[in-house]
Amino acid sequence: MWKFSKYVVICSVITIFPVLTYGQNCNLAISGFVKDVSTNIPISYANIFIKELRKGVVTDSLGFFNLEPICAEEYHIVASHIGCETQELYLNLSRDTAITVFLDQNSQLLNEVAIIGQGGKVTTQENQSLNSESIAQISDRNLATMLENISGVSAIKNGSGIAKPVVHGLYGNRLTILNNGIAQSGQQWGGDHSPEIDPLVANRITVIKGVGALEYQGSSLGSVILVEPKKIDREPHLHGESRYFFETNGLGNGLNIELKQYSKLFAWRVVGTLKKSGDNRTTKYFLRNTGNQEANIALQLEKSWNKKWVSDLYFSSFNAEFGVLRGSHIGNLTDLEEALNRDVPFFTQENFSYSISSPYQKVNHHLLKFHTKYRISEKQWVDITYAAQYNLRKEFDVRRSGGSDIPALSLNQISNFLEIKYQNYLPRNWELKSGIQMNRVDNTNLPETGILPLIPDYIAYEYGVFGIMSKSFERTTIEFGGRYDFENRNVAAISISIPREIIRFENEYDNMSAMGGINHEFGKGWKATYNIGYAARNPEVNELYSNGLHQGVSGIEEGDPNLTKENSIKNTLSIKGNVKNRLFFEGLFYHQKIDNYIFLNPQDEIRLTIRGAFPVFKYQQTDVRLVGFDLATIYMATERLSLIVKYSYLNGYDLSNQLPLVYMPSNNLSATLNYQIPKLGKFTNVGFQINSRYVFEQKNLLPSQDFVAPPESYNLVSLKVSAERQLRKLRLNMFVRAENLLNETFRDYLNRQRYFADDLGFNMIVGINISF
Amino acid sequence: MLFITSCKKDEPEDPIIPNEEEVITTLNFTLTPDGGGTPVLLTFQDLDGDGGDAPTITGGILDANAVYTGSLELLNELESPAGDISEEVQEEAEEHQFFFQTTVSGLNTAYNDMDANGNPIGLSTIVTTNEVSSGTITVTLRHLPNKDASGVSTGDITNAGGETDIEVTFDVEVQ
User: Fold this and answer.
1) What is the pLDDT of residues A256-282, one digit of tens each?
2) pLDDT at residue A609 above 50?
3) Contact call for A490 and B53, based on CB within 8 A
4) Which of A194, A199, B16, B27 could pair with B44 in a Cys bridge, judged by C-beta atoms 3.0 to 4.6 Å apart?
5) Distance from CA of A644 to the nearest CA of B (A)
6) pTM across the whole model
7) How far is Cα of residue A512 from the mean position of the Cα atoms in its chain?
């Protein structure tokens, strides 16, 4: 029977059936079952614990448990299962009570969860998540590197601190990231601009490997990443959680504290994170100036006015500084060629240091969201959301005459978003989701830099309207929808010619998007889903108007004001299977064709500047095709031992120029062996895990497409041991992870730092999470 | 209120044109013959900064078997009056060094100045020529080089490191 999952389990559905008896006050019982939500198969070896009594039981082979005798009191009951999000249940016990805790076995298997939207409805689009339990055990990572464990997801990096998620080969402006339902607004166009989101504030991070994100505002050509805090439990006592980690590589420390409470008046939750790390180390040397630090806070308030009105307020503030490898700061192509040929980067120091100096990035992002929900009836409701975001990015370079203290790039972005959504459960299992969205973005360069800005100032208005219909039959779900977007953008740029003058542009775009999907269950755990979607993306300001030397990549980049929008058609087919509840299989195949795909095309031109000669890159358009698949299988050898194998393949091809596409993630193969013990002495849910991840060399690239050939294949081995322990009211969750256990020297194709230095060597992370 | 379109278009205000005081538009390498004569002026000028229009480069003709005093001048002609970047380099002499590489046979460039640590800068040089020849001289300015690395103080760029702020090449004829 299936019992373990590396990432996700939702144990969210709990039902309580009071059983009427006339028992004595101290002769009561709590009993029940732990079961799978879709198949009703009982789950054995789940832990049930009553905090107040320090008393616990493990479910038997029928998934049954019984706790008695118990006095009539108020209790907090913890239901836990390895890899599963621990559920806490508040009970005011006055009579014998039966509880059923449902787990979702499908989710456990392949990290799939239903997107719990406003209505808790399932979409036909493929999605995979990390729950709070798995997030807590990789709390040392950032958003993108956390998601790397999901097949089909990679990260584009600049060192280890700066990382952007890549889903099915698309990233930046082609991938929408939603922070608590709001499209992250900022300088997403930059390949070295990581999303300004603290993943530790979230309870769940979901990747929708979709075909068209019609419901969400943003420029996604398919996939979406959702970072979501969960609703505050209706639990009258103060609860909290504290997480701490230490890592040996970079001597990183992180502390995350969460407090929450529910009262009839309102519910609140506050989360804060502090992180600091210093120079990372490869197998041979320290990476100078690769430390980073973060201080983040989030506040969540929920208020139920009456049965019809519910409101919530969310504020989050992300504040970070990311060091960039000192030896990766270069002046021209000669410097780059010299750096490429060095064993150890320039400026490498013997000693470790926490200090961050130029080059580095300083980023602040604040989000304020107000949401209110009005229930017209049981079956229909309206959601109104307003959100304001303030994004501030400063990038510091090594400059002359004290200029290192003045940012070389200083951008300020304010956006205001308003959304009204209407949802209705119609007769005959039809469901309607619809909405209108408006967004205003004001992007301003601060003149303090003393440098011509990389992208111009602009004010953009975006309007969108969408409708999605879905219908559930007995074994089949169908879904289809459409979306219309209009964008008006007024741009004020500074000319590259002299005398410098202001040039104004006005862009207008209107786009239609559409999607359809069908999902069919064949029975015995076999399921197939097919989706097709059409989406468009408007050219971004950097693609239209950037003009000048991009020193970091040693090239002159020229935008083209005549670029048109990209149009994409994506198909996905997913097949899930289950052989005798022992072997589970999931395959997701996708094909995406993007017409007018915008990319930086190297030109046959070398331009002379006072810094030397630079190659010229122009933003141009072409038709491309992305084809790939993500495979995952799980074999349950015994109840305690399981093997998970995942493989991701992607091929990107430029159809017009008949060339491979650059910056496509390498194919990779990962195998994980898990061994779990439900109870070991005083510890519960003890798990051992060994993982081997093989990343293939990116061979789908011509030598002329890069300064240096892509790095060779590499294999990384990692280990993890985790355990839980209940100490009266405190619940302890501990883990030790060893990454790059064999201290292998490697470089990764998607890490820009690979031109200059090796990737990280051995790292050991120790973490402890305490909840009460 | 944010979404109500007023009669006036919602446009960004005129961006403030930054004061590009760091840009180096011009390099003048003046070679003055010892014992008098007309100085030879090698210039590189790119008035709109990096990118944009192509620079103007002027090479020069030197006499064989002669000794010249070389003097470098860096200007930012985007500013009015032009900013003197060579002054900045002089002020931060420990953090800067010029290198001179040539394909002209017999041509030699020796440093004629030093920073507070006794290491060369290269704003002032002694250039000597030998036989009749032709080729190029490449002038490189490195910011934050390792001046103590092997060969750097004698003008060998190989181990210098740092970032290249300037790298310009002049055609030179010795006759």
Assistant:
1) 999 999 988 899 999 999 999 999 999
2) yes
3) no
4) B27
5) 47
6) 0.87
7) 27
pLDDT surpasses 60 at A9: no
CA dihedral A364, A420, B2, A412 (to 10 degrees): 20
Q: Do B25 and A401 touch (CB under 8 A)?
A: no
**Contact (CB<8Å) A491/B165:** no
Query: Which residues in chain B (20-79) have CB-CB distances under 8 A to chain A?
Result: 20-22, 24-25, 27, 44, 46-55, 57, 78
Positions of chain B with pLDDT under 70 = 1-8, 51
Q: What are the residues whose beta carbons fall under 8 Å from the beta carbon of B127, sequence distance 6 or more?
A: B31, B62, B67, B68, B69, B70, B107, B108, B109, B110
Among the partner-chain residues B11, B22, B95, the one whose CB lies closest to the CB of A459 is B11
Indicate yes or no: CB of A496 within 8 angstroms of CB of B51.
yes
Distance from CA of A687 to the nearest CA of B (A): 49
Q: Which two tokens stand for residue A247?
A: 């890592």
Q: What is the pLDDT of residue A545?
A: 92
The class (CATH top level) of B26-174 is mainly beta
Q: Could you give the C-alpha distances from A559 to A209, A233, A603, B101, in angstroms and in order?
A: 30, 50, 13, 35
CATH number at A224-771: 2.40.170.20
Q: Are A469 and A423 in contact (CB under 8 A)?
A: no
Among chain B residues, CA nearest to A611: B166
Confidence of residue A78 (pLDDT cuts 50, 70, 90): confident
Q: What is the pLDDT of residues A84-128, one digit of tens each?
A: 667 777 788 888 888 887 766 444 444 433 333 333 345 678 888
- The ranges assigned to domains in chain B are 26-174
Give chain B positions within 8 Å (CB) of A416. 2
Of B48, B54, B142, the CB nearest to A608: B54
HEC-encoded secondary structure of A620-677: EEEEEEEEEEEEEEEEECCCCEEEEEEEEEEEEEECCCCEECCCCCCCEEEEEEEEEE
Beta-bridge partner residues of A627: A591, A651
Q: A298: pLDDT confidence band, cut at 50, 70 and 90?
A: very high
At A86, list the tokens.
């621990």
B14, B47, B163 member nearest A329 (Cβ)? B163
The strands making up A224-228's β-sheet, listed across from edge to edge, are: A126-131, A204-209, A224-228, A176-179, A182-183
Compare A5 and A306 and report the one with higher pLDDT: A306
Query: How many angstroms separate the first and last alpha carbons of chain B?
Result: 76
- The SS3 of residue A265 is coil
Burial class (CB in 10 A: 0-12, 13-18, 19+), A706: middle
**Cα–Cα distance, A520 to A508 (Å, whole number):** 41
Place A552 in a pLDDT band, splitting at 50, 70 and 90. Answer: low
Q: Residue A272's closest CA among A258, A254, A261?
A: A258
Kindly report the average pLDDT of chain B as a whole number: 89
According to the CATH classification, is domain A1-109 in 2.60.40.1120? yes
Identify whether B15 is preceded by a cis peptide bond (ω within 30 of 0).
Answer: no
Q: Write down the ipTM of this complex.
A: 0.86
Q: Are A648 and A667 in contact (CB under 8 A)?
A: yes
- List where CATH 2.40.170.20 sits in chain A: 224-771
